[in-house]
Amino acid sequence: MHALGPDWMDPQYLFDTYGSAFFWLSLAIVFVECGLFFPILPGDSLLFAIGIFVAGGQLHVNIVLAMAALFVAAFAGNVVGYEIGRAVGAPLRERDGKVIRREYFEKTTEFFDRYGARALVIGRFVPIVRTYITVVAGIGRMQRRHFFTWSAVGAALWVLVVTLAGYFLGGVPLVRDNLEAAILLIVALSVLPMVIEYLRHRRSARVAAAQVAPQASEAVEDVEPR
């Protein structure tokens, strides 16, 4: 059994190291990332790489069956995360360790408050949010039927979009011969929504502060003796 090395975030390294077990390892990683508090796992890059490996004949798995298995792993991870949130989510939210961090919960809660049930679909494409959104839904006691429906839609879209992108782009020599660069681009694109959301939040905060400042100044003037 091989130990995970320093390049374990690299799908090519995992494929070269684990060979035929790569696909099963990928399913386990997707399951864990989608509900068990490990937000730094390479879910997006694995899906993209699986599409490339299947298209190139390196991974001998039917693309439809591969996506079906990845969907099950992603959805099952969501369900487990949701149930953990319902059962013991509140105490976990107060922890502030290296993996389970309070700021992750706070950012995910803000994301959930902004988008509602749609966050289960949109958040699927956002690292960290993808991991914690299901726990937040559980803590908030979101109706199970509602959660399962939106979570299934999110899992299906995530797997289809990212895996098929790799599958169809895998035939492009530039992508196939520069897998590492392509993976980095996918990771960058997946982080982009968080960056945009952060910038929008900062802009809103500045606008709110600018509106409050004149009001505070007027209040002081009213209090001062004339």
Automatic annotation (TrEMBL):
Keyword Magnesium: no
Transmembrane segments: 21-41, 47-76, 147-169, 181-199
Pfam families attached to this UniProt entry: VTT_dom
Every VTT domain range: 41-167
CC annotations in GO: plasma membrane
Alphabetical keyword list: Cell membrane, Membrane, Transmembrane, Transmembrane helix
Any coiled-coil regions, as ranges: none
Keyword Nuclease: no
Protein topology in the membrane: Multi-pass membrane protein
InterPro entries hit by this protein: DedA-like (IPR032818), VTT_dom (IPR032816)
Cellular location(s): Cell membrane
PANTHER family membership: INNER MEMBRANE PROTEIN DEDA-RELATED (PTHR30353), TRANSMEMBRANE PROTEIN (PTHR30353:SF0)
The family this protein is said to belong to: Belongs to the DedA family.
Protein name (record): VTT domain-containing protein
Organism expressing this protein natively: Phycicoccus endophyticus
